[in-house]
């Protein structure tokens, strides 16, 4: 579960590009600085309970993550076996899981420096990878990659992230596949919807 929290922090550093002239790296860095800065100056709010972090995640993080696409990709072929109601419930449960996971990752942030490489675009320019590194104690680096796609001209959303070669979607796929095999899809959805925020 600690790995999921770290992977959630990976996703926590990005926002959609609002102009064709803006580089995804600049947007990622601007939002990361703002959100992480808020965390550092509001440590007392963190100690008072989860409300501050939950609000921060819901307000800043979720709007820039394509939750529906990530839910579909996390379930892969299982997605098409769900009824429309099950799909909606899975997305809602997945959203609750992300809120809780990101809030936990933010709580662990203590001011580490974050650096960014230049954005890499695919040939058609509609997908981008923003690479960054968190500078840990002792000079160790935690390498991160954010995978974004262009929703419309100038607007980008995250659909996956990668920490040292391990993707968020890949981790969720394994987790959900095991849970569905053990408990079935209905119970899996029920457990997701029951995630306490």
Order of helices and strands: HHHHHHEEEEEEHH
Domain tally: 1
CATH topology label: Nuclear Transport Factor 2, Chain: A
Unreliable spans are 14-19
Largest sheet report: 6 strands, antiparallel
Number of alpha- plus pi-helical segments: 8
Fraction in helix: 40-55%
Number of strands: 6
**CATH class membership:** Alpha Beta
Global geometry: globular
CATH 2nd-level architecture: Roll
Strand content: 15-25%
Given helix and strand content, the structural type is alpha+beta
Radius of gyration over all CA atoms, rounded:
17 Å
Strand and helix map with partners:
Layout: H1 2-11, H2 24-41, H3 43-48, H4 51-61, H5 67-75, H6 84-107, E1 113-116, E2 120-121, E3 127-135, E4 141-152, E5 155-163, E6 166-167, H7 168-183, H8 185-193
Antiparallel strand pairs: 1-3, 2-3, 3-4, 4-5, 5-6
Helix pairs in contact: 1-6, 4-6, 5-7, 6-8, 7-8
Write up what this structure looks like:
The protein is built from eight helices and six strands. Helix content is 52%, strand content 19%. α5 crosses α7. By secondary structure, it is an alpha+beta fold. It is globular and about 45 Å long. Strands 1, 2, 3, 4, 5 and 6 form a six-stranded antiparallel β-sheet that branches.
Give a brief description.
This protein is α+β, with helices and mostly antiparallel strands and 197 residues long.
Structure keywords:
single chain, 197 residues, alpha+beta, Nuclear Transport Factor 2, Chain: A, six-stranded antiparallel sheet, 8 helices, 6 strands, 52% helix, globular
């Amino acid at each position: 579960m600690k790995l999921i929290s770290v992977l959630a922090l990976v996703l926590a550093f990005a926002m959609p590009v609002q102009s064709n002239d803006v580089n995804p790296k600049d947007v990622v860095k601007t939002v990361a600085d703002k959100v992480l800065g808020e965390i550092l100056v509001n440590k007392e709010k963190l100690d008072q309970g989860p409300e501050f972090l939950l609000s921060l995640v819901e307000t800043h993080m979720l709007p820039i993550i394509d939750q529906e696409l990530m839910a579909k990709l996390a379930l892969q072929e299982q997605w098409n076996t769900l009824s429309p109601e099950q799909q909606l419930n899975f997305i809602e449960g997945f959203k609750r899981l992300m809120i809780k996971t990101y809030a936990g990752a933010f709580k662990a942030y203590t001011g580490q420096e974050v650096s960014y490489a230049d954005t890499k675009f695919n040939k058609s320019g509609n997908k981008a990878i923003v690479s960054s590194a968190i500078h840990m104690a002792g000079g160790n680096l935690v390498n991160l990659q954010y995978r974004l796609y262009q929703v419309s001209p100038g607007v980008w959303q995250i659909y996956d992230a990668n920490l040292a070669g391990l993707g968020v979607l890949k981790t969720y796929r394994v987790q959900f596949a095991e849970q569905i095999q053990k408990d079935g899809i209905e119970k899996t959805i029920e457990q997701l919807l029951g995630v306490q925020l």
